[in-house]
Specification:
Strand content: 25-35%
Largest sheet: 4 strands, antiparallel
Shape: globular
Distance between the termini: 30 Å
Order of helices and strands: HEEEEEHEEHE
Strand order of the largest sheet: 2-1-6-7
Radius of gyration: 15 Å
Helix content: 25-40%
Number of helices: 3
Number of strands: 8
Length: 126
């Protein structure tokens, strides 16, 4: 990948707040919407999920996941030219009290200040 493409993708990841989260449900793909934060070097992405959500149940059963981050459709004649990136990985839970949780919470609230009340619910974790 050339430097210009890397710059475009880095900007896309930093400026987009919502991704499509792909999980496996009953051995079939399932996609949901997820707000995310990311490590500075893009080596990890974090979503704050409720254990009551089906995608969380999916990740607990099979930790293989993917994220699709895409530029918002602006009505251009060829939507295939929208910037996008697909990322495959493995989900790992980080719960309240575990190392790393507090800095993730702070980062999440900078990006999503309205989410403060979610941190008072016992069923949520990264």
């Amino acid at each position: 990948m050339d430097a210009q493409s890397e710059k475009v993708l880095a900007q896309l990841i930093r400026n987009t707040r919502i991704a499509s989260l792909g999980t496996l449900r009953d051995e079939a793909p399932q996609v949901s919407m997820a707000a995310y934060i990311y490590a500075d070097d893009f080596s990890a992405f974090y979503i704050f999920v409720s254990r009551l959500a089906q995608h969380t149940v999916d990740m607990q059963k099979d930790n293989r996941v993917s994220l699709m981050i895409c530029e918002t459709d602006d009505g251009r004649s060829d939507p295939q030219t929208l910037a996008r990136v697909s990322i495959r990985g493995k989900a790992e839970m980080i719960q309240v009290g575990e190392p790393g949780f507090t800095p993730l919470k702070a980062q999440y609230l900078v990006r999503f200040p309205e989410a403060e009340q979610l941190f008072n619910m016992v069923d949520f974790s990264f």
